[in-house]
Amino acid sequence: MTALTTPDARPPAVTSVDQGYGQNLRLRDRPFDWFFIVVFSLFIVTSMISDMLPTLGVDFSQPSPNLFVNANHWYANDTDPLFMDPPVWMRFVTGLSAFVYPVFYVLLVISLVRGWNWIQLPSVIYATMIASITGIIVFGVEFFGEPEFVTPNPAKFLAFNLPYVLIPILLLVRMRKPMPFMRKF
Questions:
Q1: Contact 21/117 with Cβ under 8 angstroms?
Q2: CA nearest to 100, candidates 47, 141, 148, 56
């Protein structure tokens, strides 16, 4: 009688190698993932700092001795009237950025370092959400919306906001196929 036919024997665990997938590349063999690790680590900080203030209703319409309030004022004062005085729907957008996306960013950074392939589907969902919310809705309002929300400084607006659309789209390309950590990009 073989080991597999005895009542107490369990079948061997099936691994990605057994399924013909191969093995994950080490992080040092996936150099582009370092870019994502650095950028999404920065996104953790910037989304919590900049988007938490309008979500919580903090007024940054005037300069302030508070570093974070003053930074938001410096950015929004001549660039982003929608961010400076957000309607309720925009506070939901900034709330996602301040309280939900950082959780994903932390998981993504850990997954990139550890090579956890399960992050592929959440990454696709996240990138699609960002492209839709920020790329279409926010940019649409800032460039083609009501006159009171149109950016008076498109270059500065794009310099600060375009990375939050382009980098998630790059992540979408990176995560385009299952088992993303078994290939360089």
A1: no
A2: 47
Q: What is the pTM of this model?
A: 0.85
- What is the rounded distance in angstroms from the CA atom of residue 55 to the CA atom of residue 48? 10
Structure tokens at 59: 């007024």
Q: Is 94 left (phi over 0), alpha (psi -120 to 50) or beta?
A: alpha
Tens digits of residue pLDDT in 44-61:
999 988 999 999 999 999
Q: How far apart are the first and last CA of the chain?
A: 47
DSSP state of 181: G
Q: Which amino acid is it at 39?
A: V
Domain residues of the chain, as ranges? 27-182
Task: Give the Cβ contact number of residue 21 at 10 Å.
Answer: 13
DSSP helix/strand/coil, 80: coil
Nearest alpha-carbon partner for 45 in 108, 113, 129, 106: 106
